[in-house]
Specification:
- By secondary structure, the chain is of the alpha+beta class.
- 27% of the residues lie in helices and 20% in strands.
- A five-stranded mixed beta sheet has the order 9-10-8-12-11, with helices on one face.
- Helix 1 packs across helix 2.
- It is globular.
- The N and C termini lie far apart (51 Å).
Length: 297
């Protein structure tokens, strides 16, 4: 994909601005990718609380996070005002995803990645998924893959269907769709119990240590993406990393130690994954967390 790719520059200022110097991917290339992938992305951002990571100069520039809805967003952009538990500001008016107009406006602000919360605006603070973030201290995806398979077996024993995806970096994300009901606090506590038991069973490979130094080369099992306004990169999100990797939904059969996450990228994703949607039944698979809690006891 090059900057001469056919696409609509409508809504994109400086469309030829280079975001990835090595591949020459431009801001317009990024916008066109999101236009093309949006039918698959939409279910994961629809009415979903977003945190913005703005990188106006792409890979090489400075980035900053923004939670408050920017004033420059298109008129009528959906938002959700949420009281802040800490800080000087009493509340934050979060952008809600769901429309291609919102997504392109965010790209225009330099948002490369799509960061989503587990709750939708209508049901906040009750999430419809559990997220486990597996971060290998070794920097090797092969370790994350091994940890992911161990986590899958644990979730299988709890009779919870799980869905893996590349983080778009070096790690693996494992999602569990659940029925709306439990609060984010309850979901977080459940996730903490799952990872604590798993790390205790495999202490040489896995850890729940908060201290990076104490983790060593083990895989950190992070349950904290499940906080009420905590976010994780969405499936189909591009990452601000070399080669523009995409956070790719996977079938468990694809989670192998030899897999290279950067093989899924802005330039080839739509071609490589054409007709493949291993998460097609994700939202039809909402599960009862209470049954799993009983099995965990």
């Amino acid at each position: 994909m090059a900057s001469t790719t056919k696409g609509r520059a409508r809504g994109i200022s400086n469309p030829d601005k280079i975001f990835w110097p090595e591949e020459k991917y431009t801001k317009l290339d990024l916008a066109n990718f999101y236009r093309e992938v949006f039918p698959m992305l939409r279910p994961f951002v629809q009415d979903r609380i977003l945190t913005l990571e703005r990188c106006p100069d792409g890979l090489k520039g400075h980035c900053f996070y923004q939670k408050e809805k920017p004033e420059s967003m298109p008129e009528g952009t959906p938002a959700k005002r949420i009281a802040n538990a800490t800080g000087k500001r009493k509340s934050t008016n979060y952008v809600l995803g769901g429309s291609i107009e919102t997504q392109i406006a965010l790209v225009n602000l330099g948002c490369i990645a799509v960061h989503v919360a587990g709750s939708r605006g209508e049901t906040f603070p009750k999430p419809d998924w559990i997220c486990f973030d597996l971060d290998p201290g070794s920097g090797k995806f092969s370790d994350a893959a091994e940890a992911g398979c161990l986590l899958k077996h644990s979730l299988d024993r709890l009779e919870l269907k799980s869905f893996p995806k590349t983080s778009g970096s070096r790690g693996l994300h494992v999602f569990v769709p659940i029925r709306v009901g439990p609060s984010a606090e309850a979901v977080l506590k459940f996730a903490e119990r799952v990872v604590s038991k798993l790390a205790a069973a495999h202490p040489k490979l896995l850890t729940t240590e908060h201290s990076i130094a104490a983790r060593g080369k083990r895989v950190y099992l992070d349950p904290f993406r499940n906080g009420s306004v905590q976010t994780v990169v969405s499936p189909y999100s591009v990452r601000r990393k070399p080669h523009a990797p995409v956070s790719a939904p996977l079938a468990w059969s694809e989670v192998e130690q030899s897999l290279n996450p950067s093989d899924f990228n802005l330039g080839n994703f739509m071609k490589e994954r054409s007709g493949k949607n291993p998460w097609a039944d994700f939202f039809a698979s909402g599960q009862n967390l209470k049954s799993a809690e009983d099995n965990l006891n």
